[in-house]
Amino acid sequence: MLKKIFLPLLLIVLLMSRTEAGTWSPELRVGILSGVKQVSLKVSAPCVMLNAAKGNVLNKIPAGGSFTVDFEHLKINAVEVRPEKVPIQELTIEVDGKKYYGGVSVNKGKDSLTVINLVPLEEYLHGVLAKEMSPSYPLEALKAQAVAARSFALKNRGRHVKEVFDLCSSTHCQVYVGVTDFDSINRAIDETRGAVLVYKEKLIDTNFHADSGGMTEDVADVWGRATPYLVAVREIVQLATPWTVKVPAKDFSKQLDLDDVKTVKLSKLTVGQGASDRTSSGRVQSAQINGKKFTGTELRQKFSLPSTLFDMKLDAGEVIFTGYGRGHGVGMSQVGARDYAKEGWSYEKILKHYYKDTKLKKLY
Ligand SMILES: [Zn+2]
Domain extents for the chain? Predict the structure, then answer.
């Protein structure tokens, strides 16, 4: 009698430990291909093909099986390929030869297919981190990036709901490349498993950029919406090296649709000091050229400047920009995270430096 109860119990415990303990994470739908007429797929483990709307099995695919989904022959709105026996995080699938964790959904649009990767969040992070930060960065910096990327994904989940997926795989959301395998990155993700950043118990927008150049920027000065945890913070470790961009005066005038450039008016840059034409971090709000006003963002875009933290002058037929940092300056600086980690800071301390008054929270 005892044996009769014990065996099913043991089986349940074993099944739970295999499918849940320590391996489960929320499933994301990440758009990886669109506007295609067909897609070739190859699975690593036995799979089923389902009618996505009804859930009924249409086909079974053996381990190593490859097949093509074709726009002309697909008669229903969407099919899903999911593993038949193993948990979804243990499946890999090749999509036109590129390997991804998890399964896929192939959706039929008006005249083409959209391919969506059905991927658990923790596995998704492997395909994001390797693109966002060098695997050679110190572990605590990689861990800070893992928490930032995880929080961003959950906070922005459903951003592409009209296209029936959660996130795209380009810079619009986060660049995502599928399966990668770097020991340092694997460790950074595992050691922060399920951890996100919250402000007053709510998930935060973890914007980040390459290099603050000495001080980060208040989000209100970039995108015009004040956010209590995305304020300008001064860097404690300062290793910023300046950059220079030179533009021939003729090209400069032409780009701005001006007659020959004669005067350039912009206050001198001191990083971390505001002015009437600069934000509190010193980034250019506006500059006057031949008496006409141009915003720092406009100038950055027109002349491909690394940031808006710059000085500019007219000298010997050239307009010379000298500045610091790379990127918009909002939130965590990746170079800063690297430098703080080298100084011995923990990932938690790094994150709290860049995202004011936030807390780490473990969701699972
Ligand atoms: Zn997107």
Answer: 27-135+163-174, 194-235+329-362, 243-323
